[in-house]
Amino acid sequence: MPFKLWLYLCKLAGIPLFVCFIALILLGSDWSAVATRVLFCVLLALGATGACMGVLMVFGRLKMRCPFCGQRGEAWGSKSEGIRMECPTCGLIWTGGALGLQIFRENTPEDAGRNNSGTNRRPAKCGGREK
Questions:
Q1: Whole-angstrom Cα distance, residue 131 to residue 128?
Q2: How far is residue 108 from each of residues 4, 8, 44, 50, 121, measured CA to CA in Å?
Q3: Distances in Å between the alpha carbon of 78 and those of 38, 59, 110?
Q4: Which helix (H) or strand (E) covers residue 87, if one does?
Q5: HSE on the CB side for 75, CA within 13 Å?
Q6: Any idea what DSSP says for residue 2?
Q7: Tell me: the pLDDT tens digits for 93-117?
């Protein structure tokens, strides 16, 4: 699974889906029964995918695709550090920013030549832009 897709799916989709699901249950109408079932199925699929990925993560077998180069690397996460992955070519990939929606990576030797001093200490953002 792509690192970027899972990050945005977890950060942006889960809470609004859950709020809509609860609202439909509480409001109740003719069409809400169908909408509630659809939202429940989507939430169930997200939860099951997250549970499977969590089990893989616990055993160190979770692999995700790098948002910068597309290669597969080991992914892990913690409450304090967020979602992270180790890409064979890009190094450490991590999330950050105000809401944790930005993706950063360690500098590679190719990044070092981007400024005049030859050293680039700031992490690169997803999309190739500098922080």
A1: 10
A2: 20, 25, 39, 31, 10
A3: 31, 14, 29
A4: strand 82-87
A5: 22
A6: B
A7: 988 877 778 888 886 656 555 543 4
